[in-house]
Design brief:
Length: 289
């Protein structure tokens, strides 16, 4: 059985990876952050995460690159590779072909992406996609956000099971006398590219004092910076299609490029806690010039 201390330290490493995928993510440095020997760190990371450190970092970087290739057409392939932490065009192209089966330049056509759309495998989301296909996108506000300190629980898979993660986080916050006013869902994965059961989602609540007892619940600072802020409302199943429209329709025409920090939703009504399955939120997409 994994100890709470092990889970806490590996969660810290996952936060380091997702905070800046272009950073020095060599095993030796990450093992030092986690306060383990490098050998033990490798073994524990795979035990907790289910993938080796190298596999996980490569996957995260390639998912970000696959998004940028399609949704930031003003960037050339080398710029995308560098933005996503690859040291050379050749190593990027080789890794990309191994995972996606085609070279990065061919992926840019969008044909493979359009066919993929893993989220359409869920019947509820597929129906919601059909309903939302005729909806126009809201005009976003462009805002500069400060970093936000949150307590969080990681969740693997995107579906109704996220409700239990939110219930656990809410019960923890109430037991500690903490406010539930700031509720945020971090979207680490693009569910068009990643099967829903493999998507990484993070349920977060804002905090004004440190988390003293860490284990499954930890704390992290969500990066600030320039974001496009979209006000969205609907019911369960409709959020992923709305987010996809933002990525696919708004971003390529906007003149902005996607940054590699996580996009997130700040809920004023949380579909995973509401009895009627409805959500009201602002979706924040990190962007740059």
């Amino acid at each position: 059985m994994q100890s709470a201390d092990h889970s806490y330290r590996i969660n810290e490493i996952l936060s380091v990876i997702h905070r800046d995928i272009t950073a020095d993510l060599h095993a030796k440095r990450l093992a030092e952050i986690a306060a383990y020997s490098e050998h033990y760190f490798h073994r524990l990371f795979k035990q907790v995460v289910g993938q080796s450190l190298h596999q996980y970092i490569r996957k995260v970087r390639l998912e970000a690159a696959a998004n940028q290739l399609i949704f930031s057409p003003q960037l050339n392939v080398l710029e995308v590779a560098q933005n996503c932490g690859f040291q050379s065009l050749s190593s990027f192209s080789r890794a990309f072909r191994e995972v996606y089966g085609i070279p990065p330049a061919k992926w840019r056509s969008g044909t493979r992406y359009q066919k993929q759309r893993y989220y359409l495998s869920n019947p509820e989301i597929r129906l919601a996609y059909q309903r939302s296909d005729t909806l126009s996108l809201p005009t976003p506000d462009i805002v500069n956000l400060p970093p936000c300190e949150v307590a969080y629980i990681r969740h693997t898979g995107y579906g109704r099971s996220i409700r239990y993660t939110w219930q656990m986080l809410s019960a923890w916050a109430e037991s500690e006398g903490r406010s539930l006013e700031v509720q945020i869902g971090l979207h680490h994965s693009n569910p068009a590219l990643v099967p829903l059961e493999q998507c990484h989602y993070v349920a977060c609540v804002g905090i004004d004092k440190p988390v003293t007892r860490r284990g499954r619940i930890n704390s992290v600072s969500i990066p600030g910076g320039i974001h496009a802020a979209f006000k969205v409302e609907g019911r369960f199943g409709e959020l992923l299609p709305r987010i996809s429209k933002i990525w696919e329709e708004w971003l390529p025409k906007s003149g902005y490029v996607a940054r590699t920090t996580p996009a997130f939703a700040r809920y004023s009504k949380n579909q995973f806690l509401a009895d009627d399955d409805r959500f009201e939120l602002v979706f924040y997409l990190p962007i740059g010039l």
